[in-house]
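Newbie here. four chains, one complex. Structure please?
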Amino acid sequence: MAANEYPKPSVTVDIVIFTINDNDLKLLLVKRGVEPFKGKWAIPGGFVKLDESLHEAAKRELAEETGVKDVYLEQLYTFGDPKRDPRGRVITVSYMALVNSEKIKLSPSTDSSDAQWFSLKKLPELAFDHKKISEYALKRLRWKFEYTTVAFSMLPEKFTISQIQSMYEIVFGKEFDKRNFAKKLLSLNILKEQGINKNVSYRPPMLYSLKADIGEIIEII
Amino acid sequence: MAANEYPKPSVTVDIVIFTINDNDLKLLLVKRGVEPFKGKWAIPGGFVKLDESLHEAAKRELAEETGVKDVYLEQLYTFGDPKRDPRGRVITVSYMALVNSEKIKLSPSTDSSDAQWFSLKKLPELAFDHKKISEYALKRLRWKFEYTTVAFSMLPEKFTISQIQSMYEIVFGKEFDKRNFAKKLLSLNILKEQGINKNVSYRPPMLYSLKADIGEIIEII
DNA sequence: ACAAAAGTGTTGAGAGTACACCCATGC
DNA sequence: GCATGGGTGTACTCTCAACACTTTTGT
């Protein structure tokens, strides 16, 4: 039963890259330049190299597309229907990434007609089973927002409470009560005051950062 | 960028099969007959065929090992470290299955020295990264018990409340208050009374079944 | 003084937790 | 009548949801 007795499928990673800008939740799509689905929009991804782990492959593809490293990256689910790629058997391990839109510069090698941010509300038709993958990613994103601190990975180091609340309202598509939101957030005891932001024409808000010992994503369930 | 330009990894499915018997949570392990790790215990699994989906592959391997079909089966996570298999690049999609121990007959082709149930408390050393996989599966199992109705898939059609409570106590390794447990369970409104079990030498318990419209696993979060 | 967003407290409802006694049966 | 597990209610605490007004700044 050696590992090479069987015909082998191809293995890819596909990455649903989320960001928030213009008060909207967006994901990055690339336009396919080759058949199949030539000209259709697709989630960025590519083949896994034999000497890299799945996570490394996802990180590499992400860096190639967006130029960012050190972002939140999480494996979602592996899609392996035999008919999902007309070229042959391709199994894809899907990932989700959360990036801070201010840190992104879309890869200069791909001009902007090839890679674009799309609002979740106005997605074009997607290649392969990428609609299913992006729906799965959105569910997971909401779950993670509800029960962990991933949201902070889409913010700059210092942020205001209303910036956080606004992200939650965008992701869940509904509004939250300001008092209850702040009360809950502060009671978690994960924020540190960072002084006051003076560059606004209204009452200046308190800036916060995550406490030093909250480097990693924690569960707030 | 055809699908076959790259050298390909092998893809397997590995299934963590849980059951409860003798008041203990157990998982099924098979003894490896070939190198590498010959003689070591491993989670059952095998290569994915080119014309079957991942779920079908997991179902097939499960049926080959245990003879059971129609059990709860869920994809967990895909492990793809380049060094996880000394034979070469093997990516494995892990699954978890929950089976009713009364319905199992271990495959007759494998004698009992080759496949055995092990208590989670006394696992032997495992081949490959199977320890990591089984730990991941246990976490997911506990999560699913807490927030969904998967537990019922390990019970016969009619069951008592204390059977359910006993399963939860085994899976979480702690005891629950009998009154609170019954109150919570009955308040979910998913059980139907099925008359009284008379074959006991103490006050006979009420038997329940899942309501007809609760065929699928539901979230009880 | 006005516009804009920041900041803040109380109340009621529901869920979870802790806790102990009587009941129905077989032997 | 005794051993065995079955079945049940109350009180407390905590969390969540609903709800509106004052404060601070720039212009």
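Moderator note: The longest strand of chain A covers residues 10-21. The CA atoms of residues 34 and 40 of chain A lie 9 Å apart. Thread marked as resolved.
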